[in-house]
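Quick one:
INPUT:
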């Protein structure tokens, strides 16, 4: 049977096996999908061993995405732009192809929520790996403006300069942000510590869409905060998780699984509904 897995550390709580097993059942593909948690300095060896032993493809998550970028034979354009690899496929001619489906997953999830990206003013919070992966797919949707704000402002400036050729992207310091924005995407890891990015409450209005790439059994700190200040449409990163997985599955198997039912089952599994 074709073998796939996700590399991460820690990875025990990954939902990827659950999601891909449902995709395989739905599309009647025969495959198995497991977990691998190599020591942080043993990822390269573990990856090689997996493919030497017949593995067909894998996902890569924290903290290995940047390292995976350097280990594959070939990179997709979107992986090159993201500077990170979250999906690897062994091609029929034996080449390890590195791809990145995170940004496509974000855009697909935003669209499935009915969020309009074309001609919109988007505020992206954070300038780390998650922000970098989102930038090209967001700019491809032709927003009127994409502003990056980051605690360390120079990182936002660097990122904006790097993606400048792809669309109207600028960096602004948190305290200088001027609304109104149509969509705010939180790519920071602040919610992990229960912290908030230093965003002025005045930027939140009833018609704004709020997206937090993080997710949990209950609302993230950022979503709670945005709701308190009047945001009516809030979304967490669970849909992005399922959509990036669907994109990876499509890369591997050449068949696109449906995501709605899988997202519902995942929410049930997590106790969210
Ligand atoms: P990831 O790959 O998930 O993006 P990362 O590369 O470590 O992770 O980046 C984390 C991002 O969250 C950074 O933009 C970080 O801001 P700094 O560049 O200033 O470190 C941001 N971040 C983390 N905690 C934050 C907090 N409490 N408030 C605001 N931004 C925060």
């Amino acid at each position: 049977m074709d073998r796939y897995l996700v590399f991460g550390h820690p990875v025990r709580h990954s939902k990827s096996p659950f999601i891909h097993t449902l995709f395989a059942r739905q599309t009647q593909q025969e495959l198995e999908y497991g977990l691998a948690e190599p020591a942080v300095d043993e990822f390269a060896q573990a990856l090689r061993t997996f493919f030497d032993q017949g593995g067909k493809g894998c996902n890569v998550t924290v903290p290995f995405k940047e390292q995976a970028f350097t280990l594959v034979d070939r990179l997709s354009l979107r992986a090159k732009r993201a500077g990170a690899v979250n999906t690897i496929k062994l091609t029929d001619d034996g080449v390890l192809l590195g791809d990145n489906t995170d940004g496509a997953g974000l855009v697909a999830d935003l669209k499935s929520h009915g969020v309009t990206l074309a001609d919109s003013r988007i505020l992206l919070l954070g300038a780390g790996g998650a922000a970098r992966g989102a930038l090209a797919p967001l700019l491809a949707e032709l927003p009127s403006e994409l502003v990056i704000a980051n605690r360390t402002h120079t990182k936002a400036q660097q990122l904006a300069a790097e993606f400048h050729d792809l669309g109207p992207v600028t960096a602004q310091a948190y305290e200088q942000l001027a609304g109104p924005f149509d969509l705010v995407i939180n790519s920071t890891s602040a919610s992990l510590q229960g912290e908030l990015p230093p965003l002025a409450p005045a930027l939140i209005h009833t018609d704004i869409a709020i997206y937090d790439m993080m997710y949990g059994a209950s609302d993230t700190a950022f979503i709670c905060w945005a709701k308190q200040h009047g945001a009516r449409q809030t979304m967490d990163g669970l849909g992005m998780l399922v959509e990036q997985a669907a994109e990876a599955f499509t890369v591997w198997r050449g068949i696109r699984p449906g995501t709605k039912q899988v997202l519902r089952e995942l929410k049930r599994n997590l106790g969210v509904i």
